[in-house]
Amino acid sequence: MDGVATTLTEPARTAPPSDSHAHVHPNLALAVIAVAQLMVVLDATIVNIALPQIQTGLHFSSAGLSWVLNAYTLTFGGLLLLGGRMGDLFGRRRVFIVGVLVFALASLLGGFAQDQAWLLAMRALQGVGGAIASPTALALVATTFEEGEARNRALGVYAAVSGAGAALGLILGGVLTDLLSWRWVLFVNAPIGIALAIATPYVIAETTGRKGDTLDVPGAVTSTVGMAALVYGFIHAATNSWGSATTIVSFVVGAVLLTAFLVIEARSRSPLMPLRLFRDLTRVGSYLVMLILGAAVFAMFYFLTQFVQDILGFSPLKAGFAFLPVSATIVVVAQIASRLIAKIGPQPLVVAGTLIAGYGLWWLSRLGVGSTYVAGVLPAIMLIAVGMGLLFVAVTLTAVSGVDDHESGIASAMLNVCQQVGGTIGLSALVTVFATAASNFASSHATSLRGPALQQHAFAHGADMAFLAGALFALAGVIAGFLLVRNRQLAADATSGPAALG
């Protein structure tokens, strides 16, 4: 374990920033980065509670309404790698500001939408801004704070924000929708984004790109289109069929283009995604665990927000606040984890966090129509929050630990990709499990239950099966964390320098 402490206190191998503001306002810099990340992360869920009002206001069909979420997911997932690499090449502060402004402008214009097409276009543009800002934000943490206690604390804040963002989005969405209108779930981002863009040059140092490196255009095209096709395939499978021609073609196109991307990266002198990052098994393990837990946990919010409203009878506002303990717990546990990791290393946190979150998902699988919030929902989501707080700090640190400064953007982008793609895979897979289980329950109980009672029992049973599948995903994450995440590997990174990565 002593090697771990060495790893986390070894000075970072970073070039001096090119701006006189370097490290003048580290706490303010962290505040700006954390708020930007929060703005991007919560936008994936803040719209959820407003969906009924959006459907009524803009006359969406039930199938079309899902694209209010999917338009954001598609562009965000497809462009993350490109966004991370742009920060490495062109200066992270500059690219961060561009991403934040694009996100804020799209949010403002989306709030004024008078028809479906305009809203969906602006949601897609929000995804573009998020894909540029989010990986750059994590890379800025790695380059603003030296490795050791300062960076651990900063990453603890970043991980807490990333983990709590989904629950905070539900709370804020409920408040704004109930007290104002659905348009304010979009308007709220505009003043925040503008304020962040103004403050950033004063508190965050600029980084310099590597001379001689150019943007890998073939890699950018194949990765972006390939990721978008893959994400679209999962989205289409969830709303239509896994066996439909569109779903199959999307998966085939995604697989072909991503394979081509790997070939291009192996041959490129300035690759978009240096493959040597994957020679570190601990980093690979962190990416894999994030992918699996993204699949297991983030789909949980989709079913649970409906459960507390349709089964427990909560209003949108009350439903939003029902998830407040999740946010608060993640923030507290993440700060504890950021102090523990230097003493015990990342592996115990990854394994314990994944196991605890999985137990929380199993607890949710026991919910029924007669369950209550206090005895049924609350203990389960608290367990999941504890697990996420432990896990996110560990995987966030191991994703960027031992990476040279000029590659920290793409290393952090991969973590975002795994979380985003994992969430998309999980939602599509668990929606399929839910739909099958609910349909089978309704068919077998049609004579004993009728009307709303049948619908409620069928929904509860389908959600239980989805939560159980999520718990099995988490078990796979426990195994991956135990086998791949190694404290010894991190120590080697710190002492061996760039050569340790290949």
Describe the 3D structure.
By secondary structure, the protein is mostly helical. Helices cover 78% and strands 0% of the residues. It has 20 helices and no strands. It is globular and about 70 Å long.
The percent range for strand residues is under 5%
Shape: globular
Largest beta-sheet characterization = none
Q: Give helix and strand order, one letter per element, not per position.
A: HHHHHHHHHHHHHHHHHHHH
Low-confidence stretches: 1-24, 488-502
> How many separate helices?
20
> Helical percent range?
over 70%
Number of strands: 0
SS-derived structural category = mainly alpha
Distance between the termini: 24 Å
Instruction: Kindly report the average pLDDT value.
Output: 79
Integer-rounded radius of gyration: 22 Å
Keywords:
mainly alpha, single chain, 78% helix, 20 helices, 502 residues, 0% strand, disordered C terminus, disordered N terminus
